[in-house]
Structures are given as structure tokens and as C-alpha cells.
Amino acid sequence: MATALALPLAGLFFFRIYENQLIHQTESELIGQSAAIAAVMRRDLEARAPANIPLGAEIPTPKTDPAEPYTPIMPTLDLTADDMLGQRPDAQPAATPADAAFVALGARLAPDLVEIQQVTLAGFRLLDPRGVVIAGREEVGLSLAHVEEVAEALEGRYRSVMRSRISKHEPPPLYSWSRGTAVRVFTAMPVTLRGRVAGVVYGSRTPSNIFKSFYEERGKVALAGLTIVSLALLIGFVFQRTITRPMRELMRRTAAIGRGDRSALRPLAHHGAMEIAQLSQSFLDMAANLQNRSDFIATFAAHVSHELKSPLTSIQGAAELLRDDLDPSAQGMSAADRHRFLDNIISDAGRLTAVVQRLRELARAEATPTSGTTTAADAVADLRAGFETLGIEARGDLDRAIRISAESARIVLSHLADNAARHGATHLTIAAAAQGDGLRVTVRDNGSGVSRANRDKIFDSFFTTRRDSGGTGMGLAIVRAMLQAHGGSIALSEDGEGEPSGAAFVLTIPLTERERPLS
After folding, report:
1. Cα 351 versus chain centre, distance
2. Helix 376-386 vs helix 406-422: angle between axes, to the nearest 10 degrees?
3. pTM
4. Which of 18, 430, 487, 519 could join 394 via S-S bond, C-beta 3.0 to 4.6 A?
5. Tens-place pLDDT, residues 161-199
6. What is the pLDDT averaged over residues 289-293?
7. Is residue 430 helix, strand or coil?
8. Are the beta carbons of 398 and 493 closer than 8 angstroms?
């Protein structure tokens, strides 16, 4: 808001362009007025001056195009590029008095110059061919031939300059910001007669300035200032509503989530803008995922410790009994008991090895690269090669390219096939159908199925109904982690419970970009 308010004020330091336009305007007005006065002087001299009147320098006749007879004089002064000359030198006594014809001409035109100045505020002096003032109030009879612009006009060339202006009154402090307020424009235009210089129209005027223009348009300037202030307040309000307020709320939510406040994982009450809504939702989704991940790690660590505790306890107990059997004073155990304890140690060690192996597979599934593509047909072909004793039937959109690597697809289907085989299945049916942006794959077996009591637990890590036969309860957890890493999902089909129909799992795998339907 402060910047928006300061910009118009800062513009006061960059008046050069507008002031330069004012300089051009002033010079253009002086050119027009001087040309009119020069034409009057020439007509008067042609009508009244004697043939032998003394004239000045010869002016070469310019070559003109008949199709373009005009020879305009354009303003050339540039406030930013041209030098600023000092105050105009004072008039000096003339070496030779002006001719009587020129003196009479000046007397006739002097009243007209006064009237012109009263209307245009421009001061004019009429000079004879030697630079002597013939009309110009107190300087009549004095010479200005030594003045730079006058000297060039006496040679027959138009010249304009900017000179420093020293006012009789002290200007207000604000005027010091503008260079144009201390400038006076001078123009010297030669008067031609019979191809020679017959005099000079020497005009000057102070250009208008920025502050005078502002004062003259003070109503509009006040309205513009009020508009700027209103717009600044509006911008501030919009920024506060659309950016500042939602960002502060998001910062408070961040701090609350950092303290473990789960109630902070909810949408903001006010988003302000679509981008802020997307940002806040992305942040809250990320925070929710991290929170869920943290909960999963805590629960997973508890399950792992529970799964490892039982075999470790069994191994420790068996080892302690075997160690006690080495004591000569104690009654020794039979060979059958020793074999039984050793078998328990080997069995529990094997279970620990299986659990560690599945933990490694689960970690690899969650960190698997998501690049690569394959087809369901290729994955089914690999599955048939790995499970020759299992009858596999496949149908549907098997040739559609899916966004999962061949190795990952093989791991997913292998776990499902192994799980079916371990539950007594002899036949596996795989049906694929494109659905939206994904491929829906239904994997159905004819095994023992999933009981209603276990339907909500089968995807939990370490949940198994085959613990006594070596099951670790990690297979379906690995499948789910692998599919989620590729943007897919797995669910137990509603019609897949009970022994008659076995188990049926529905997998959703994203299609590749070229396989997706046009929206």
C-alpha cells in the first residue's frame, strides 16, 4: 500500500518528459508569433523603406521542391540534452545608430508588441540588420549583436536557446524539484528582404511549469489523488482477504499440526483465492499423509515387536533349558526332548527369517520406482511360468498398456497367486477391463475364500490365518504398498466371500497416457 501511494509522488522526480514538452510548446508558439511579426516587418519595409536602405548579410536562396513549397521551422530545444546558457547578456551601446527608416519602423510596431505581450506573455524586440534594438521598451537604441542567438540570426539562420531565468521573487520550495521553472526560451528569427537580412525578431518567454499546470487542474489532481488512495486501500483489502489472512491461518495450522493437534487437519474456513486453496489443501493433504505415515510406523513397529517377541522368547527358553541340561548335577533330559527343543529353535529361527524377508519385501514395495510400463497379458504370461500347477484363465483388455513395471506387476500377481495356492485354490481367473483412466483387474480363485470376520483385517500387516504353517501376514500388505506406490489400489470384492466362490480381489492400475480416453 505504501508503495502504491508513493509511486505518484515519486513521479514528481521524473518531470523531464512533460517539462520538455512544455519547452517545445513554448518554442513553437514563439516561432509562430515571430514569423507573423517578421512578415509584418517585411511588408512594411517593402512599402515604406527607400531602395538604398542598408541591409545585412546575404541569404542564399534555398532550393525548394515545387510540389512542397513549405519550409517550416520546427522546435528543436531539448531540456535533457541541450545546454542551459546563462542569463542573457545586457544590451550594449551601439557602434552605429540605426537607420532612420528602421527607427520609424520600430516606432510604428512598438505598440503592437506591447499588445501581443499582454495577451501571450511573450516579450519581443525588433532589431535592425546590425543588431540595434529599434523596438523593445528600455533597450531601444542599444545593441544586442553580441548575444549568441542574435549573432546567428544576423547571419540569416534561425536560432533558439534556453537561458537561466532569475525571478524577482523567491520561488516556493516545491519549485526546486522542477528544472523547467528556472528556464526562459529565446528565439531569434531573421527578417529577409531582397535576399538579405533586414532585421531580427528576438522573442522570449518563460514556459509553463508542472506546478502551475497542477494548480490549474487542481480539481482533477485532487480527484486523482483520492482515486489512488481508494485503490491503495482496495488493493490492501483484497490482499488481506486473499493472501494475508489465509496465509496467517495456514501458519497457525502449521504450528498446531506441529504440536500434534489432529483437529487442525481440516480445510481452511476462508481461502481467498484458488491458488491459496490449492496450496492449503496440498499442505493439509501432505500433513495428513505424514500423520498417517507416522501412525502407521508406530503401529507397524508394535506389530513387528509382537511378531518377533514370540519366537525370540521361544528360542531363549529352549536355549536356556538346553544350557541347564549341560549341568552335571542336574537330571539330564532325554534325547527326544533335546531334539524337540532344537526343532523349536530351528522353527522359530525360520519364522524370524521369513518375517525379516517379508519386511524387506515390504520396504522395497513402498520405495519401488514408479517408472516403466507393461501389459496385463505380459504379466499373466510371467505368472503362468511361475505357477505351472495353478490353472490360470485370463480374459478382457489384457493388451492395454498400464503404468507399472513388468517386475512390479509380476510381484503383485505372484503374491496373489501364492496366497490363493496356500488356501487350497487350483484355478485362478484374471479379468481385465478398462475403466476411466485405469485398468480394473479382477483376480478370483476357487480356494477357501475369506470369512466375514476376517474381511476387514486381511490387508493389515502380520494378520494371517496360517501362522502355524509359516504364514507371515505380509503378502497382501506388500501388494497394497506396491500398487499404492504406482497410484493404484486393491480391494476385496464384495462377492468374493465364502467357500463356494473363493476369494476375489479387485486391482486398479493406472493406464498410460496414450491409453487414456480423450476428455
Report:
1. 58
2. 50
3. 0.46
4. 430
5. 999 876 555 544 444 434 445 789 999 999 999 889 999
6. 72
7. strand
8. no
